[in-house]
Amino acid sequence: MTEAGNILVDTTTRIFRDLGDPQTLNGAADDRWRAPLWRALEDAGLTKAWVPESLSGAGAGVADGFEVLRIAGTFAVALPLAETLLAGWLLSQAKLNVPQGMLCVAPARDGEQLLIGADGKLSGTATSVPFARDVGQLAVVARRGGKAIVVLVERGSCEIHAGSSIAGEPRDDVVLDGVTPLALADAPPGLDEDKLMAMGAAVRSVQMAGALQSILDRSVAYAKERIAFERPIGGFQAVQHNLARLAGEAAVALAASGSAADAIDKAHGFDEAVLLEIAGAKIRVGEAAEKGVAIAHQVHGAIGFSKEHVLHRYTQRLWAWRDDFGSESAWAVRLGNAVAAKGADALWPMLAAR
Amino acid sequence: MSAPIHFDPIRLPPEAQALREEVRDFVRQETAAGTFDPRARSTYAGYSPEFSRKVGKQGWIGMTWPKRYGGRERSFLERYVVTEEFRVANAPVGLHFTADRQSGPILLKYANEAIKSDILPRIVRGECCFCIGMSEPGSGSDLFAAKTRATRAKGGWQVNGTKVWTTGAQHANYMIGLFRTSPSTKENRRHGLTQFLVDMAAPGIKVNPIADMSGEKHFNEVVFNDLFIPDDHVFGEVDAAWRQATSELAYERSGPERFLETSAVLFELVRVLGAKPDLRGAEGVGRLVAQLHALRRMSVSVNGMLQAGKEPVLEGSIVKDLGTIWEQELPAKARELAAFVDPRHADRGAFDEVLRQAVTIAPKLTLQGGTTEVLRGIIARGLGLR
Description:
The structure holds two protein chains of two kinds.
Chain A: H1 3-19, H2 22-27, H3 34-43, H4 62-74, H5 81-93, E1 103-106, E2 115-116, E3 122-130, E4 137-144, E5 147-154, E6 159-161, E7 171-179, E8 183-186, H6 193-225, E9 227-228, E10 231-232, H7 237-266, H8 272-300, H9 311-323, H10 328-342, H11 344-352
Parallel strand pairs in A: 1-4
Antiparallel strand pairs in A: 2-3, 3-7, 4-5, 5-8, 6-7, 9-10
Chain B: H1 14-32, H2 49-58, H3 76-88, H4 97-110, H5 113-124, E1 130-133, E2 149-153, E3 156-167, E4 174-180, E5 193-199, E6 205-210, E7 219-230, E8 234-235, H6 247-254, H7 263-273, H8 279-307, H9 313-337, H10 348-365, H11 372-382
Parallel strand pairs in B: 1-4
Antiparallel strand pairs in B: 2-3, 3-7, 4-5, 5-8, 6-7
Helix pairs in contact in B: 1-3, 4-5, 6-9, 7-8, 7-9, 7-10, 8-9, 9-10, 9-11
């Protein structure tokens, strides 16, 4: 972590503590907390962490931006911060200017493609786009004659079919029916829907690791406080062993997502090695989310299943984030096929090179 | 509020990856020369004086130790590479592995100069085998219940009792044994045990082989009958052995041998499923590879943190817990994924053979070197629950 990165981390933590405390938000009667929190994030330059200074961004490193998102994960952030960072990253790759405000990216699901016609207009459907209805503009990867193009689109010019994730956050179908782009540029070599999916998967892995860290902390704290059978439940071996397993899942999530973020930071593109790191992270962190959530709820008992308790803000997001930018299954098929194509004897050298 | 868990994204340095190529060349040469057969599988790492001597010549035993004892003063990450390449190649490291991993470092820390200059260079040359005397018929996971007694004698100690499940005792030149020198106290039930260096050639030691469930005889019962141990073979403080095993455990628990023991099953699974697996096979392999990758990155991280002088004890225990569960589950998952492969498939025989071997050793993987239950207790303590 650079010194600038440390400052960024401190700033992020402070802003979320002051304006985005999940317990406070959970009890809020309306969503008036959203505007001040977003403004604070924007003022601190965090929403444009991945936009270089030359494009009027904060110019933070890739690793520092991931660290901001891990911290956001520990607060179960219900704003499109990750999506705005991703949009900033995508637009910057094509040297396009990045507008202020909330942004999101599309496609966000495996195997979808949007097209630019001969008339220069955009068409196609992107499903389950995170936060689409909340943003001002969308950053999109589309195809023109087979070539990948990065496009900025006004949300108002798209047809939005509202949907939601299991956590109740927007996952909207976006229909582009002859939409005129606000701006567009050729994607640099190697950047396409696939790479956007990979970057999105890395982002979600890092967020999930942060959320798992937080549910571990909360579960351990709860087990120390909650008295049953005349002692803290954390004193029971059965509960201790469940929490040890949760620690293992949080640990593997931190390690795998941190490794993927580091790989992206150090690499010059998305080569095979980086794809192993990202697929490995999204698969294993998704599995950790499933196992970890079950344990956290088991430890918390009935109170953790209530609306009033903060736990569901994490656990429902963990479930939802598994599905964005390629599920564990989708990434596993892709990784499995890549391994099979290279053959049994290439597997160990591939792993050992990381 | 933040759990005290850290996994820095440490990468192996270029010199370690360069060393990897040397190790692979060496493995290729030795298998071609017939020093060992990588397909020969056993419930424990094979024992080969010839191979260990050759590894010693390469400078790959005790490679992190001071040069004055024959070491090479190389990093733990370089040792990591040698360990994982040998494990994946199924190399017969049984003679030197225990001495290299844990006995040598204990000698470096606690033995006097004469013992260090005598024994360490022999370990480095691949000529000196160590075993570990911990478990007893009445104490396994409950290490501090050990009853084998060492009582004061003229110029040293006299030992009576029995150790059991002692891997490699039949070959070992030395044991590092844990013996009771005082009763435990009410305040501290871990009090009263002392660590000793035992010369396995001394009179008063009987080694009785015990067959494991595969029929192989790798572990033993070791009976001490008035064994004399001289005073300078006491390691560390008398009665306070429990204080000595802290950071060392992270080395013992986080190495690649803690998740690679059944890895051949994965490689043979990929081979038998072929270049174009069906959806079920592709997804299954993808998940297994993701798990192995994540474990390996955790393990490298812990070893990198150790090299940097940190003490990731909690992280080391987590790696062993996750790693041993994974290597234990791998054979069952691979068996499911290969269920519909044609029995006449050319690679099916090789797969079935490594699978059978892995299924057989699976039960011991979560027992040896600290059971799952013990590890989870340690992790719970790290979380502040105990």
